[in-house]
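Lab notes, practical 5.
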Amino acid sequence: MKTYEIPELRNKKFIFHDREHAGKVLAEMLAPACHKDRNTMVMGIPSGGVPVAIEIATLLKLPMDLLIVRKIPVPGNTEAGFGAITLSGSLFLNQELVAALHLTEQQIEEQAASVKDELIRRNHIFRHDRTFPDVSKKTVIVADDGLASGFTMLAALNDLQRAGAGKLVVAVPTASASSIQRLGSAADEIYCPNIRSGPYFAVAEAYRNWFDLEKEEVTDMLEKAARVGIY
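Output from the prediction step:
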């Protein structure tokens, strides 16, 4: 796995104005490789990865789609996750955290089932239940707005690998050093301008203008992307 960063942004905070700005920075980093390999598409992870993916796809003139995947929240704490699940049912668990929280098999199954229902809703709202795109032998750039633990990205990459993607490229504006390490050989390349180490990491701290995206906002972005022919 090759990792590309911007060294002067290592361990910096509040670098990007917003997700769109972060997407532009990533597009500039990706441009040299993408000009050589046109058998490429972008896949964004909703919700925060959508504006990042749209900027990359727009500036590099690439088609895009969405990967419907989401973290599985810790019971009683929706902000923290103990793993991730994809629309296809691929499940990745943070076994250390599961053990530390003493989560039972029933709790894990109940939380996963709840998230799966949400993924089905998101696929209907954002993708209108379209079939999964043909990624066979393609280079796929997977975009999100940041990696905290990396388990959501691991689940997404596993789905793409099973679908026969030729090359997997992770494109995220910010990530913890531990999440980069966790991806290991799951990705062929990682583009991340802002890598941060230390005991505490929050994706939001890379952005000066940070807010959660509502479903309506994501839908509006996708409709605009569809009108210009990238989605």
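Observations recorded by the TA: The domain at 2-67+133-219 is CATH 3.40.50.2020 (Rossmann fold). The chain has a mean pLDDT of 93.
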